[in-house]
Design brief:
The structure is a homodimer of 457-residue chains. The first copy, chain A, is an alpha+beta fold and 457 residues long. Helices cover 43% and strands 17% of the residues of chain A. Chains A, B: Belongs to the class-II aminoacyl-tRNA synthetase family.
């Protein structure tokens, strides 16, 4: 191989500093998940294709990475099918496994498969990579991590309340102030569609409404008309386009719009319950905001819908989202299992923290002390000391070769190692260690015990 | 989907207890890696096929999971090739990416690709899953984790010494006594092959010798003869089959066998250096043992070869292995970059700890306290308290529904939750909490502060 090797587009290598920063985010999220009573599960990277296909719409099916069967996979393709040279049709015969597209469908599969071993309500979290054959762009990768927490087996709205607290706790712990937790409710959207006589066009309606922020009310109305929603119906929506004020003021306006819709009123009642509880419990740093245009792409939400926006001024898509789905496990044959969950977008949170320079300085840890190598006798003496340092929790290593002093010191500098220990003939004879502080340049001759105390402090 | 969903063979779901146990092993290994100065990197789950193919032999190529190209992948197959219906030949046209087969080749690719940003010697560790389309059996899966630590950029034998110490530290920390670290040296094997005039048959020779433990000397000799190694040559090996005594005694015997081989003597010198250093530094719980039959499958080792055996009495393949490879990055065009590394077999270590019942009891943590739900007013009051508990690092949650008391208590029992808090009308009025110890059955009425102190202790 003559040319420099590379990696597939949309994928990334992570160097030690990047891994440390990512782990900082993972650990912060994980700590909050566990404090809230969520327990970890893990599922395989690939699933049987039938588990994933048809669960994410046509677009989703296309973006799922398929794994080629092993061996002579074409032998199983019959001649008629083979003659068609139809990639899509032949795929199902030559590929029986596919890479996970998200964590929600594998979780639903897990719950159904292990339902007899699970104690419900089941609070689980999962932090694993997912893969999508999407066109890569800023903040969008072909391999990326999702961090999900879900509860299944209860319809209680207290869980929605808890998830809002959980978002608040994580972003507070990450010292990322000013995030907005947007909330909506699918029942409210259904109510509005009902009122304007477009219940059969709920999806078209919500997809159009979702764009209000981006394209403005006139274009949204035009899109609705193009989808066959009557102009007279859309006229009834005018108050919706003019919603303003705080949470309670918006709820009051919605109450009058939805006075004739049972499902709409149910949505309002849920939103009111959640908002009241959060007002009483108080958030630390995040803000809860009603956003009636919020629909999110996935059609399985049946109640609350969440989306988290980065602080104002940061150009970034949503950094989290979720909602309630009353029948997720139904696709695998288990009915009446309500679930609600949220997701954290690790990769986007990373980009936001990087842009705002919010990673703690101490996050990327190198070793505490490097022992300079002056030859085999000194090296052995040093390794005996290093063994003791390591037992005390100090990160320490010996420069592997008896290279020139300058080279070894440069190595320590380039790796930002705070201390260097010099063991020459004199130290070897006297059983001492010369400790050099790489920042101040200060040098001291110390016993092993003093060395340990000094480096630990 | 009518039938119960399942997962592909050779893959696994992990429930909360299993994840906790696996994380216990990961964290123990990681802590040791970092204490020894290794830094983490991560590489993508899939690589360009050309990066992986041809690096693991024919068998390896066959076992690599290939990913189907997106879109109309068959359009790129020309008619002649398509008419052949040759799965193997068509694969390279319809699949350009493949799942990682191990962590070593991606690491070599990483080093070459990022060589200008790396400060050498570079000590990296990597703990990520790998995938192999192997036939599943006990301790062998299609998706499993590898935990690797390697150093590149130095030929110093002190690194071999450090890796032996690292193995010892990890298995000591896991409280798994009695593991054997077997060591050999490729140069020693080359020397023996040279002495018996079979240098051109080094692979056949080592593959046969590797089976000595399993099939005995006569069958090993028969296999060597079948591979074209002369009987007179094999006769010279007799002392090898009779090696006995401790490390030094075996070295003395090998010195006489290899007196005429420069490369063989170099191997002996390396082994002696490493053994002497380890004797001086002392291992905590593991034993270092010379095993001249140890070759390991991979042909890139050029110096030391390691393999770790589980304690006697546990039926399990090797739980770790590694060695020195003087030219790993050569396959990607970067010459003269010596590397040495070791790997921990997470899944097998798990099975060993499980079999010997060595997981700490505290490893699988549930929540500390469950608040019983008596209705909305009590729930809100409880959540205010729970917020304070969580800020104090206590894992706490509210039962989501105001279900029957018995059902909620059963839930606490099934999850082994140690404490339950009861907040009824009385507690609500008096601003107190009734704490029940689920083990002793003892109940106390406490203030919020006392509750926190009690649960924390």
């Amino acid at each position: 191989m003559a040319h420099k090797p590379s990696i597939p587009k949309g994928t990334r290598d992570f160097n030690p500093e990047q891994v440390a920063k990512r782990n900082y985010i993972f650990e912060t999220i994980q700590e909050s998940f566990e404090t809230f009573g969520f327990q970890p599960i893990e599922t395989p990277s690939f699933e049987n294709s039938e588990t994933l296909m048809g669960k994410y719409g046509e677009e989703g099916d296309r973006l799922i990475f398929k794994i080629l069967n092993s061996g002579d996979f074409l032998a199983k393709v019959n001649n008629t099918l083979y003659a068609s040279k139809d990639s899509q049709k032949i795929t199902t015969t030559i590929s029986e496994k596919a890479l996970r597209y998200d964590l929600t469908v594998p979780f639903a599969r897990y719950v159904v498969q292990h339902q007899n071993d699970i104690e419900f309500p089941f609070k689980r979290y999962q932090m694993q990579p997912v893969w999508r054959a999407d066109r890569p762009q800023k903040g969008r990768f072909r391999e990326f991590y999702q961090c999900d927490a879900d509860v299944v087996g209860s319809t209680s709205l207290w869980q929605e309340v808890e998830f809002i607290q959980l978002y608040d706790r994580v972003f507070t712990a990450l010292k990322l102030p000013g995030v907005t937790i947007k909330i909506n409710n699918r029942k409210l959207l259904s109510g509005i569609a009902e009122i304007i006589g477009a219940s059969d066009k709920l999806i078209d309606f919500t997809v159009a409404l979702d764009k209000l922020d981006k394209i403005g009310p006139e274009k949204v109305k035009a899109e609705m008309i193009s989808k066959g929603i009557l102009e007279t119906s859309i006229a009834k929506l005018q108050p919706l386009f003019e919603l303003s004020g705080d949470f309670n003021a918006q709820i009051t306006a919605l109450e009058s719009i939805l006075a004739q819709s049972e499902i709409g009123k149910a949505g309002i009642a849920e939103l009111t319950f959640i908002h009241k509880a959060i007002s009483e419990l108080e958030l630390e740093t995040a803000a809860l905001k009603l956003d009636v245009t919020l629909a999110r792409g996935l059609n399985y939400y049946t109640g609350a819908i969440f989306e988290v926006a980065a602080p104002e001024g940061v150009q970034m898509g949503s950094i989290g989202g979720g909602g309630r789905y009353d029948d997720l496990t139904g696709i695998f044959g288990l009915k009446n299992m309500s679930g609600v969950g949220i997701s954290f977008g690790l990769d986007r949170i990373y980009l936001v923290l990087e842009e705002l320079n919010l990673f703690p300085e101490t996050v990327s840890k190198t070793i505490d002390v490097l022992f300079i190598n002056f030859g085999d006798a000194e090296a052995l003496f040093s390794l005996k000391a290093i063994k003791q340092l390591r037992l005390q929790g100090i990160y320490a290593e010996l420069y592997p070769d008896a290279a020139k002093m300058k080279k070894q010191m440069n190595h320590a500098n380039k790796r930002n190692i705070p201390y260097v220990v010099l063991v020459g003939t004199e130290e070897l004879t006297q059983n001492t260690f010369t400790l050099k502080n790489m920042k101040s340049g200060e040098q001291e001759n110390l016993s092993l015990n003093s060395l340990i105390q000094k480096v630990k402090a």
